[in-house]
Amino acid sequence: MPRKNQAVKQPRAAKPLARASFGELAGWKTLVVESEKLAVTVLPEYGGWILSCFYKPRGVELLQRSPRGVLPKDDPPVVTDPLFAYRARSPGGWPELFPHGSSPVEACGVKLPFHGEVVNRAWGAEIVKPRGAEAVARMAVDCHLMPLRLERTLRVAAGSATFVLEETATNCSALPMDFMWGHHPIFGKPLLAEGARIFAPAARSLTGEYAPAGWPAHQGKDLSLCPAEGAGTGEMFYLDGLREGWYALVNPKERLGAAMAWDREVFPYVWIWREAGSSKGYPYFGRAYAVAIEPFSSLPGARERGERLLHLEGGASLSTRLVLTGFEGLAEVTGVGADGEVRGR
């Protein structure tokens, strides 16, 4: 019992803590980096796919899960065309497209598959900082179809809802190499809903045929607004002329959002794919409701048309950084900082 007038010591509040750990899902190894606010789950053996960005304050998943989900390791997909294995394997989430994006193309004497090689490869993974003020992990994969290596460092700080992805692409040969590079985060419910809006500082959009168009409005249509589930619509278009490298997707009714920021010099375009039940054939069969908002180095078909690709001389490397932040309380976003800080009202 404390003496009269003696102060009672109060228990210390627990310090915020970030953690990194390995686990398993459907027979596949998982890598999780998390804080009290955000948990990011990656499948290193499954193409390095970022499967989940779970926003803990709301208890919601920010990324979309495909109707089929992750295929068990002991039940591989039926791949009728190896060049399109991506479609057979995609669980939704956030794949990385490297060293190619879009339709198969001839390069270096070989056909590069749809959406590149690394989504079809097993990555190595290790935990660098398992617990503390920051959780840190590393991943790496070597391409076989081009002499390129891709390395990632994944970070989540204690008390933060921001995921940091630091990456380096290296040309392991003595020959110059041109390549594409992009990130394909696919968002779904409940963040995606009728009236959810995309904010991005772009000068213009490009149609699916790459014709210049307005942004956010074009010919009386607000391209920034997302359709309702089951609307039967689907579209692909692009953002060009970015003043800064960021975007945000906001559900104003729920006041819930996700934002990305990146190096505009590496990823000067944003691809936008929206699907609300228009694709009736394989692999969606009318069941997909998703929007992918993708920072990209190039436009689809850039190699065939002789347009912008990234370039590395023999032995050279290119490093870059992206962040994703989950947030709430805003209906409009006016900016996203390089550290993931979201500004708006």
Could you describe the 3D structure shown?
This protein has 345 residues and is mainly beta. The protein has one domain: Distorted Sandwich (Beta-galactosidase, Chain A, domain 5). Helices cover 3% and strands 46% of the residues. It contains two helices and 30 strands. The strands form eight sheets. The protein has an eight-stranded antiparallel β-sheet, with no helix packed on it. A six-stranded antiparallel β-sheet has the order 5-4-3-2-1-10, with no helix packed on it. A hairpin with a 4-residue loop joins strand 4 and strand 5. The longest helix is centred in the first third of the chain and has 5 residues, at 85-89. It is globular. The model has no long low-confidence stretch (mean pLDDT 95).
